[in-house]
Structures are given as C-alpha cells and as structure tokens.
Design brief:
The protein contains 16 helices and 16 strands.
Length: about 525
C-alpha cells in the first residue's frame, strides 16, 4: 500500500512524495527515472515545435501603429408629439433589424415611499407586471410572450418608474396591446403580492451574506443619511405593513398619462406607429394632480471610520470617499479625469501603487459619482488581505493627498482624457441607447446636447484643472471609510488614522407589531 500526500512545488503544481508503509519499501530511484525520462521527452518535443514555428520578419513596433480618428457622433432627431391626454411620445425608426422596443418613463420613485412602508415603490413596480391585468394573469401573459420571443417588464427605482416592451416587428400590435393593458389596467393579484413580499423578506435575510455588498450598502446609507429616503433601509416591519391596497393606491397616484413619457424605437413606419399609439391611448383620460418635486437631498454625513466586524472572512472589503456632485456641475469633466488618474484603470496611480508595487489588493477602483438631480458619491472601492488593511488605507490616503498637492504628468492627463473620450462613443453605439439618452435628458430637465457639452469639457481639461478640482472637491477631512472584515487581523488599530471609529451593527431587526391584514391602506402619496 502506498500513501500519497500533496506537495506544492515552486510553480504551484502538485507533486507526490512516496513513503514507506508496513508492507514494504518502494524504490524512489524508479520514480526518479520515470520523472527524468518524461522531462527529456518533453524537452525534445518542445525543441521540435520551436523548429517548426514560422517567423515574422520586420514585425512593426506596436507604438508605430496609427488608427484613424473616431467618427463624429450623429444624434438622430426623434419625432416628438404629445397626445390629447397629456402623454409625451418619442418615435425613432430604424430598419436595420426587424425589431421594435419601447419604454414608458413614469415620474415616480421610492423617494416617495411612506417612512413606515419603505419598499412600497419597489414592490409596486414588480407586481405591476407579475400581477397581470384585469383580463389576463401574469402567468398567462408570460406564456403568450414566450411563444413570441417577446418581453414586457416593469420596475420602479429611486426616481423613476418604467414599463418596457421588446418584440419582433410582426408581433408589435399584440405585444403593444399587452404593454398598454399593464400600463393602464394593472390588477395586482394577491398571490403575486404575497410572492413579491416573500422574495423581499428573503433578500433582507440574505443581505449580510456578501461582505463586499455590505461595504457598498453601508457606505451609501451613511453618506445619504439613514433617516432619509436616499439612505434608509427596508426592514421586515416595513414589508409587513404593505398590502395590495397600498400598491393599487401608489399605482393610481403616479401612473396617469400626463405623468408619462413614451419612447418607441425600431422597424416601423413613423406615421403608422403614431396612428397606432393615438388610437391605443385615445380612451385613457385618467388624470391626477401634478406630481411634486422629489425630496431634496439634505444629509450631512459625519466623517469617520465605520467597521463591520466579520470573523469568518480573510479579506477586508472597503469603501472610502464622500458625497460627490451633479452631472451639470461645471467641474464635473475635470473631476471625471482626476478620478480616472487616481483609480480608473491599470495605469492609474492606485492600481500601480496598491496592486502592482505593494501587492495589497487585486482590484481597486476610484470614481467621481454624479447624479442628475441629487449628488452621486466619490468612491474608492476594493479589498485586501486582512493583515494589510491598515497599510492599504494609509496608502490610499497618501495617493489621494498626492493628487491634491502635486501636479499630474502630461502622460497621465492624456491617458485619462483619452480613456474618458474614447468611451464616449459607447453612449451612442446603438440608436436605442441614443433615444434612451435623449428621453432621459428631457425627463431630468437637461439640454439634449448635454453629452456634447460634457465631451467638450473633457477636451478642455488641463493639468492645472485637475489639481484645482482635486484640492477643491476631494476633501481629505470629509472622508468616510467603511471596512468589513476581521477587525482583529487588520494589521493595526484603525483609530491611528486620526478619525473616530464607529462599530457597524449588522443585526437584522425582527418585525415589530404593526397593522394586520385587514388594516386600512395608506393614503395616496402627494
């Protein structure tokens, strides 16, 4: 009998050590002979292969390669009109493929959730589709659409809701009929309400499973404010208070024609599509008072270090940063370039220092987040071995300080600007993306040429601009640091960084007593 135990060699593969047992000795020399014979055969084969490999004479240096400039982006102008019921419509025909798709944007969002029923908008957006219409259940709609390789989906996010469809050209009338019925006659059947609530409870129960997700979630909630719609958490008690009647009331408050922008793209005749839409929505004259502005962002987070102690992990997942800005801010183009220099790719400073030179992290990235009407987040994200947690955070702060107080090189500036500008074309690589961007700008009140204003802004960014915006906007004193990992293995105390340290409580509260199934629904929101 031969016992084998693995032994990792210098190349990371596994060899085997043969040992004696009670039944006799094994000849190690025989094993060595076999290994040497295999090695010699491999060397002979390698030499033979190299002799037959073709050679390429005068291979040019990659630095000598030249590429033509990218073509100028041409934005098509969609046909735009408003129906008699107040719904604004955008049509953009494209006959490249026999496909038609569309989306209805609804001015609503979870920012309108009642504080005691957080999650109402999300659940409403999900059950709007799964709950079916007055004539068909969601399951019946699923079967109909699957037989046509089509889809109709719905959702509600932070500051907008949507109902969308996609289908083959030949099935457009039937699919748009289903789309229309869901938009105007959603039923919210009780079994799908119960299922959606069960799925939400399951998501709450699993929210602490992934340490990376914990870090991202806690970072966002701290900066946006746990007691505001931008940063509060959905708990069991909130889900338990939500009933079918609440979803119906939310749906009726926000899903009315004058509160909707409809965009349709694809292989159709614009005149015929306009006629079809006008006829389809002619009888939908439902109205509600105008929707008020979304709640203003007012959170003022306190800088500090927030630690979620998890002793079952060997890495620390971290988020470092502070509140960012708006897309329309005059310094946004320069901040985008500055963030790219800091941590936007393999040539960035953080990757070179933290990953390549020190080997602390495999992945690290930085970005300046900007929103349409509420600020995004300046965020440095990554993970590192537990024992290098303190040194990694110190190194990140050092690189951030260098960016604020030292000039960037011409090569860094050029690479960052090229990266941002070359990615610009992917905003318009399909007509559907183009139409979606145009509609989004109208939805948020931005000029249609905003993306070109941004492009020109990036082209004008100088080294002096990068230093100026880094000093002005990347505030070392306002940093919030979230670390999720085994605190005992951090390689040092985080309070040595000079910021107050706060423990994060990841406990998931049990549901509190609340209204029962027969309770009255919440009053419609403003």
């Amino acid at each position: 009998m031969i016992n084998r135990k693995p032994l990792a060699d210098a190349r990371g593969s596994e060899a085997f050590i043969l040992s004696r047992d009670r039944e006799g000795a094994v000849c190690v020399a025989g094993v060595l002979f076999l290994l040497l014979t295999s090695f010699a055969a491999a060397q002979t084969a390698r030499t033979a292969n190299e002799a037959t490999l073709p050679t390429v004479p005068n291979l040019p240096d990659y630095k000598a390669l030249r590429f033509p400039p990218l073509k100028a982006v041409q934005i098509p102008t969609p046909e735009t009109f408003t129906l008699a019921n107040g719904m604004k419509v955008y049509l953009l025909a494209n006959h490249e493929l026999p496909l038609v798709s569309g989306v209805a944007l609804v001015r609503t969002g979870n920012l309108f959730d009642p504080p005691d029923k957080r999650g109402l908008a999300d659940l409403t957006g999900a059950v709007l589709r799964s709950g079916g219409t007055r004539d068909k259940t969601g399951d019946q709609i699923d079967e109909t659409l699957e037989n046509m390789a089509a889809s109709v989906e719905s959702s509600i996010g932070e500051n907008r809701g949507s109902v969308s469809f996609s289908c083959l050209k030949e099935n457009t009338p039937q699919v748009m009929g289903i789309f229309h019925d869901l938009l105007t006659n959603a039923e919210f059947r009780q079994d799908k309400v119960d299922l959606a609530k069960t799925q939400t409870r399951s998501a709450i129960a699993r929210r602490n499973d992934d340490p990376g997700s914990i870090a991202s979630r806690e970072f966002s909630n701290i900066l946006y404010g746990r007691d505001t719609p931008y940063g509060w958490m959905i708990e069991y008690e909130h889900v338990d208070r939500i009933h079918r009647e609440d979803m119906v009331a939310f749906y009726k408050r926000y899903f009315f024609p004058a509160n909707i922008m409809l965009a349709v793209y694809g292989d159709f005749d614009p005149a015929q599509m306009r006629s079809q839409i006008e006829n389809m929505f002619a009888g939908w004259n439902y109205s509600q008072p105008p929707v008020p502005p979304f709640p203003e962002f007012k959170a003022k987070p306190e800088p500090g270090i927030y630690v979620a102690d998890k002793n079952d992990v060997t890495q620390t997942f971290f988020e470092i940063g502070h509140v960012g800005g708006l897309l329309k801010d005059k310094d946004y183009p320069a901040l985008e370039v500055a963030a790219n220099i800091l941590g936007g790719g393999f040539t960035s400073r953080l990757v070179r220092r933290v990953r390549t030179q020190l080997g602390y992290a495999y992945s690290i990235v930085a970005g300046w987040g900007a929103g349409y009407f509420s600020p995004g987040l300046f965020q440095i994200s990554g993970s590192t071995k537990s024992k290098s947690t303190l040194e990694t955070i110190k190194t990140i702060r050092e690189e951030l300080d260098k960016l604020r107080n030292g000039e960037v090189t011409d090569d860094e500036l050029k690479t960052a600007k090229d990266t941002v500008l070359n990615s610009f074309v992917f905003n318009f690589d399909t007509p559907a993306k183009t139409l979606n961007r145009i509609v989004s700008y109208d939805y948020y009140g931005y000029p249609r040429d905003f993306i070109f204003q941004f492009q020109k802004g990036v082209e004008r960014v100088t080294r002096a601009d990068v230093m100026r915006v880094a000093r002005q906007h990347l505030n070392m004193q306002n940093l919030t640091i979230v670390a999720v990992g085994n605190e005992k293995e951090f390689g040092g105390a985080l309070n040595s960084l000079g910021l107050p340290v706060h423990p994060l409580d990841l406990t998931i509260p049990e549901p509190k007593s609340g209204p029962g199934p027969g309770a009255a629904p919440a009053a419609p929101q403003p």
